[in-house]
Amino acid sequence: MNRDEALQIMEEHVRNANLRKHMLGTEAAMRAYAIKYDGDPEEWGMVGLLHDFDWEIHPTLVDHPAKGQSILEQRGVPATVRQAIMAHAPHTGTIATNDMEKCIFAVDELSGFIVACALVQPNKKLAEVTVDSVKKKLKSRGFAAQVNRQEIQQGIQLLGIPEGEHIQTVLAALQNIHETLGL
After folding, report:
1. Is 3-181 assigned to CATH 2.30.30?
2. pLDDT of 19-76, one tens digit each?
3. Which of 11, 34, 50, 180 has its CA 20 to 30 A from that of 19?
C-alpha cells in the first residue's frame, strides 16, 4: 500500500471537499509527528489520510470507523494503519497504545480546530494563525463549539508534551500544505 493507493481510497469514498481537506491536513500533521517520533512518514501519513474515509458512508459514532475496516482490509491497508484508525475514535473502545495511535488521536480534533481558526482570519490564511491565537480560541467555548476540546486535551496528555508544542507541530504541518488546503 502506498500513498497513491490510499489517496485513491479516499477519493472513491469521500465527496465532501472540506472532509478531503481535513484528511489531507491530518495526513500532513501525522507525517510531521512521524519525523518527531522516528516513525515511518508514509505509514503515519496513511493513517491521517484514511482516518475518516468512511464518514460519509457511516456518519454515526456507532459505525465510524469500525464498519470501514473491512474495506481497508480488502484494499490491503496494513493492520497497523487500521488499528491506528480505530484508536482515533475513543468510542470504539480501542485504546491508543503506541506513538502512531496516540498521535492520530491527538491530531484529529486539533487539525480541524486550527482550520477553523484560519477561517476567521481577515484573509482566511493559516499564515495568520499563531499558537497563542489557537490557545485563546480553545478557551472560547462559543468558537467552533462542535470541536471536542476534551479530546484535544486528552491528546496532549497522551503525547506528554506541552500544549504549545503540540499546537505548533500541527499548525506548521498545516501551514506547509496551505495551498492544498486553500488557506
Report:
1. no
2. 999 999 999 999 999 999 999 999 999 999 999 999 999 888 888 998 899 999 999 9
3. 34
User: Is the peptide bond between 41 and the residue preceding it cis, with omega within 30 degrees of 0?
Assistant: no
- Domain boundaries defined on the chain: 3-181
CA distance 161 to 97: 16
Q: For the segment 72-119, what is each residue's pLDDT rounded down to a tens digit?
A: 999 999 999 999 999 999 888 899 999 999 999 999 999 999 999 999
Residue 38's region, left for phi above 0, alpha for psi from -120 to 50, else beta, is: left
**pTM of the entire structure?**
0.95
